[in-house]
Amino acid sequence: MPGKTPDKEPVDNAGYRGGNNKMKGKGKKGEEEKMTVVVPPSKKKDVEGDVAMDVDDKVEEEDVGEKTVADIKSNFALLDRAVALFDARFTLRALRSVSSIRKRLTPDVLAQVISETYTATSPGAEIAAGLLKAIGREEVQLGGKAGGSEMEIDSEPKAAGKNGVKKEQKEIIPEVDVFLGILTQVLLHDNKQWQQGLEFSRYLIEKVQELNRRTLDSLSAKVYFYFELFAEQLAPLPPSSQSTIVAIRPTLLAALRTAVLRKDTDTQASVIVLLLRSYLLTSHISQADLLVSHTQFPENAANNQVARYLYYLGKVRAIQLLYTEAHNHLTAATRKAPSSACALGFSQTATKLLLVVELLMGDIPDRATFRQPAMEASLHPYFLLVRAVRVGDLEDFESIVAQHGDTFRRDGTYTLILRLRQNVIKTGIRMMSLSYSRISLRDICIRLHLGSEESAEYIVAKAIRDGVIEATLDREKGYMKSKEVGDVYATREPGETFHDRIRACLSLHDESVKVCDCFGEKGDGA
Amino acid sequence: MADRQLTTLLTQLRTPSLPFPQSTTLLSKAKLLLLQLSALTPSPTVPPAHLTLAREVYELGALHSLRAKNPDSFTRYVSQLQPFYELPPASFPSPSQNQNKVTALWLLFLLTQGRYTEFHSDLEGLSTRASVAEVESDRFLGYPIKLERWLMEGAYDRVWKAMKKGEVPSEEFGVLCEVLTPQIRREIASSSERAYPNLPFLSAQSLLFLDSEGAVVDFANSRGWIIKDRTIYFPTAAELNSDEEGGGEQEQEKEASQMVIENTLGYARQLETIV
Predict the structure, then answer these.
(1) Per-residue pLDDT tens for A357-398?
(2) Over chain B, what is the mean pLDDT?
(3) Which GO terms describe its biological process (chain A) (predicted)?
(4) If contacts are CB pairs under 8 Å, which of residues 172-201 in chain B contact chain A?
């Protein structure tokens, strides 16, 4: 049996046992149920272990490290399972735990995990050495110096015979390699070791591409994500066209191609988003547009990726003056954004852009948007901006743009905001036209700070043509005369509105009836 | 050998008054030489000196084709220049003096073509190269940006002033402004039609920036305006459609009542299903 490498079952089984043994010591509640299937008594011990650990946590500092090691290892079992059952949900669960592990992760903890997982002779030793090198712990010996892992190995032979040690080596699946690789990336990222991080990511990507396993999909998406993050941090920083992100684009594009061919939706979605981000950072708008038109964003992509994609798409469309489209995408993006505090930055950024696009469309954003406690402070400059646009005060608008220019530039909305100037003027003219039945061009010019009377004349004429106001100009006497607002009730308007409302009521009634029917049938069935 | 030939060609090309046929032959020769140097497109192996030569050939090509009013060739040269402008400044011995000029001309060209989407996309790209304030205050780059802003606002008089002979940053801009002039005039005419009930001849002349009364008459005729007693009367929208709408009014009325009847019948039917 030990010689049969391709036969996975016994190996996997042993894996569960191994994982289970770890559980006994320091279990995670989440594992309990699955583990009990293999060895029933463990459940009891798990609970005990949990309680004991809670106490220990308070007392001993060292225990945090131990717990982290255990937490990381507990994920191996999940990955094992994901491979055995070919179910990506387990992989995702392992990835989700990264954020909680992240806070406690240190090079020493990771080194310990690596040394306990791999042995010096195992096939993964090379990878392990690479991992250790990346975190600057080359001196750590592989093969498990800690007592815990030896115990694992000790317990193994009982089930699998004398070759237990060898067995242990084989059960290290590539998913575990990559998972540890991601942890290494996280660690390097948190320690701001950008250059090492980039090199390590390159190495890891190579490994992932060599492996070509479908169970790696969601893991590799994460690998690319950190790859891009590292590249962004390296000097020269992104806006310059010599940034590292330009250099890594071919790699990402190749990854995208491969992902599409392999129907790897996780990597596909992730890489498309990364590429869009990269293009927008260097303002390669037309390339971003081409990317969007030549790729199809996977329908069943993760929600977060969809939100990001929509945001970037909205940004591209806004720059291209397609405000309606941009508005749709951005509204969807803000709605899809997770409501928890962890994604607050994204919601803020998306909301800011959405506000500007709404203004560009000639709408005035809802005041309630600015009242949300989490966003109030960061949206304040935009609030002032909206106020200026709403009143149509050109001077006020320009002073706000000058005052908060840096903020707007940082948010990447500055060029869009500059386009608002004409909207401010239009609003101003509309206000004039509503308040006065007749006003001289000179007064318009003074109030809207338009520079000259001639400009005012052309601008008003254009506003009339664009249907912003209903008025006529008198050239000789130099005034604008607003047209009398016609009687709305003489038109078809009220009838149409009435019809719309009736239709809405009727469809509501129909839907209610349908729902009632549905329940009725169900009731009958039961 | 080839680069020396190229340098002599370039000195010849630098004279702005070069007639177009001559410049085209010189340019094609220059491009052949570039091909020999394998510097047609920037690749990491091309030495900086050759890159500079290639860049200048394309820049001069763009300027010459603009002077000769050849938009296709201008577009081609500008797209060939793009990869050169994307290169880090360190790969050239000296920064290009014509880069801002060519970029500004390209932006203005996009404006005359009404390609606002590309205009704004490229503008966004510019803001990464330098700060926005720098771009706006640049003699060349600021020009198309200002024009676009005024055009959007409708401040045509300022556009007009900026397009006068002495105001354009360089001779090539004038060529594009000539293209822009009739477009602006059309814009003004279409807004005037809606804004004024009638317009005296002299006002129309100054409003439309026309040189003589004869030009006003020609222009008015071309737009179908009615001239009476030295005043232009604009046909109102209703009058324009009056010919077709003689019977149209009645039809509309009929349509309206038909709609009301249909709606009411619909309500009745729905009510029946409900009750």
Answers:
(1) 998 888 888 888 888 887 888 888 999 988 888 888 888 888
(2) 78
(3) regulation of protein catabolic process; ubiquitin-dependent protein catabolic process
(4) 187-188, 190-197, 199-200
A372 found inside a domain: no
Same domain, A429 and A498: no
Q: pLDDT grade, residue B241 (50/70/90)?
A: low
What is the Cα–Cα distance from A381 to A347, expressed in whole angstroms?
A: 16
A473 to chain B, any CB pair closer than 8 A? The answer is yes
d(CA B13, CA A18): 78
DSSP class of residue B199 equals E
CATH number reported for the structural domain that contains residue A439 in this entry: 1.10.10.10
Establish if A35 belongs to a structural domain: no
CB contact under 8 A, A465 and B195: yes
Residue A436 lies in a domain: yes
Question: Residue A359 contacts by C-beta under 8 Å, 6 or more apart in sequence?
Answer: A365, A385, A386, A389, A420, A423
Domain boundary (A187, A216, A232) is at A232
Q: Which of B124, B196, B207 lies closest to A319 in CB terms?
A: B124
Instruction: Average the pLDDT over each of A166-175, A415-424, B113-122, B235-244 and give the range with the smallest value.
Output: B235-244
Domain assignment of residue A499, given as a range? 490-519
Element (H, E) at B120: helix B116-129
Same-domain status, A149 and A112: yes
Residue A415 lies in a domain: no
From chain A, the residues in CB contact with B254 under 8 A are: none
pLDDT at A56: 44
Q: What is the pLDDT of residues A233-284, one digit of tens each?
A: 887 776 666 677 888 888 889 889 988 888 888 889 999 999 999 888 888 8
Contact (CB<8Å) B199/A475: yes
Give yes or no for B156 touching A (CB within 8 A): yes
My answer on whether omega of the bond before A123 falls inside 30° of 0, hence cis, is no
Q: For residues A480 and A495, state if they share a domain.
A: no
Q: Is A77 at the interface with chain B, CB within 8 A?
A: no
Residues A308 and A272: beta-carbon distance below 8 Å: no
Q: Are residues A145 and A96 in the same domain?
A: yes
- Identify the pLDDT of residue B204: 80
Task: Quote the crossing angle between the two packed helices B48-67 and B20-36, to the nearest 10°.
Answer: 160
User: Cβ-count burial of A515 within 10 angstroms (0-12 exposed, 13-18 middle, 19+ buried)?
Assistant: exposed
In total, how many domains does chain A have? 3
Q: What are B233's strand-pairing partners?
A: B198, B226
Considering the domain architecture, whether residues A433 and A514 belong to the same structural domain is answered as no
Q: How far apart are the first and last CA of chain B?
A: 97
> What confidence tier does A311 reach under pLDDT thresholds 50, 70, 90?
very high
The pTM for the full model equals: 0.74
Do A124 and A198 fall into the same domain?
A: yes
DSSP-assigned letter for residue A141: P
pLDDT at position A420, please?
87
Q: Across the interface, do B194 and A422 touch by the CB < 8 Å criterion? A: no
Q: Residue B253: closest CA among chain A residues belongs to which residue? A: A492
Which of B128, B184, B188, B223 is best to mutate for the A interface (most A CBs within 10 A)? Answer: B128
More confident: A473 or A13? A473
> Do the bridges between strand B226-228 and strand A438-440 make them parallel or antiparallel, or are there none, so unpaired?
unpaired
Distance (Å) of CA A149 to CA A79, A144, A152, B43: 19, 6, 5, 54
A86 and A146 both lie in a single domain: yes
Count the neighbouring beta carbons within 10 Å of the beta carbon of residue A406. 10
